[in-house]
Amino acid sequence: MNMLKQKMTWLGVAIVLVVLVVFGAAMMGSVLGSKPKELPVALVVLDRPAGLPNGGTLAVGETIREQMLSNQALPFAWHVVDSEEKAREGLDKREYYGALVLPADLSSGMLSLATPSPIHPKVKIIANEGMNAQASTVVRQVLGQAMEMISGELAQQLLGQIGQQTVQIPVETAKAFIAPVSVQEEVVHPPGANHASGNAPGLLIQIMWIGSLVTGVVMFLASRKAVAAGSGRWTVSALQAIAGLVIAGITSGFTLWMASSWYGMELVNAGEIWLFLWLAGSAFFLLQSSLLNWIGFPAMPLLVLLMFFSLPLLNMAPEFLSQATRDWIYSWTPLRFAAGGLREAMYFGGLDAASSNATVLWGVAGGFLVLLLASGFKAGRAADAVPASATDS
To answer: Checking DSSP bridges between strand 39-45 and strand 76-81, what pairing results, if any?
Structure first.
């Protein structure tokens, strides 16, 4: 019973609850309940209206266009483009998660279903899997279901028109109306083999963050020992930065070699992927080391929290996140820029595709390199010293 009277017991319970709230928000708050909204998708309407026997016209493409654009239940932000080539350019530039292409013979093909020689028009659904596997799956599934419903409605309308002209409908005509429109699915920028369903970039960035953090702590301890032994603080900070950057290059190369050799991850443009991963690891190391040099070991909780709040977001499309998560975490976390750039380097053609995210990482690396070197000019403080057990040789 004396245990229950101790303040430390209840303080420990309060601390545990706070930790659970913080890490629960980090690991679950951004992910649980997430749902897609306003995924950018291209819509290409190439259909040419076909003439009806009664003198009217059948414009299936325009009908589908109106239904798609007016359906608020679809989680898409439509971008209407006038050619399939422009839609593919947008997919290559990571502007769309997918595209719906309505062919030129859509209306005429639908009319042909009532003739002895029916032509099933082919509607094309293109999924940009490299941009985000989860979002591309939503594009394929939702568009496939929507086209199935719309084609069924169109088939019922045409059957009703035919029924007004004749009592009996030929068996072949009825069979043609069972599946009036063929849906052709295509995947662009697919991840290679053993890429964790397109989640490999996020996994590699997680490994690099942890590896850089370990490197940063080791270099921080080594620098404190060197300063205690009489070395100049600025010289130690410069050597700390140089050593960390070299180690980041080695660890990034080893990580890729391990992923490829041990786990069979298929890598295209492995050299460019290694360079980008080296940049990411360098930016991480400089950020972590700067905070350690200026704050000391109290910086560790900040770095750990940053990691736990960022990791669930790395393989998620921003359109799946709540607005608060996008504004307060996703918009600025360096891990997001690293994972996005690595995804572009791996699936969209190398370093040229990752230039925008690489620029951000260069800025992070440059800024924190200045801070790391500047820490060499600050006066020594007791707070900077590591515990005696850590400095004993």
So the answer is: parallel
